[in-house]
Amino acid sequence: MAEECLFWFVYTVAEAEKLIIDARFPPPRRRGFGFLIALERFGPNQTLTECLYQANDTLVTFIQIEKRGAIDSVEYVAAVDGGEAENCKTMPAGIRLAGNSISYPVQNGVLGPELKAGMDRILAATRKAGKTTGVYCKDSTQPREFAQEGYDMMVAVTRLHCNPTHN
């Protein structure tokens, strides 16, 4: 059973280190395991103990970079080590949020040079730290562009795009 934890509004190394600790189960970390009780009662054919023993090894942690403060410290945040079997990934999610945060919003589907520079900085920092980098895309055509730039993971569909009643 793989599990993902997505964290946003992470600006500093201290915040990144804390979330890594909070995302993992004891020992050695401090996350609660109440949600595993529901899995044992209603979920997959695993016991609570089996889930707990493998949980830390299958956990993927995403740090969402979307605010100016996070972009400004991305080199340091990306370098935070998750330890043990942790797979800490940095994800420059929400291009529109990042653009709005740095006062260069996406307009008519175009990423301005300032936003593009911020995205390039995120990609370079995560590459240097040996992390995986992903990005939310506006539609199904954009993932190819980001893949060619070196992004590892592209989210091309959201609830908005999946809702056939949305105009």
Automatic annotation (TrEMBL):
**GO molecular function, a single term:** kinase activity
Spell out the GO cellular component terms annotated for this protein, sorted alphabetically and separated by semicolons: cytoplasm
Which InterPro entries does the UniProt record give?
Answer: HpcH-HpaI_aldolase, Pyrv/PenolPyrv_kinase-like_dom, Pyrv_kinase-like_dom_sf
Mind listing the UniProt keywords for this protein, alphabetically? Kinase, Pyruvate, Transferase
Protein known as: Pyruvate/Phosphoenolpyruvate kinase
Superkingdom of this entry's organism? Eukaryota
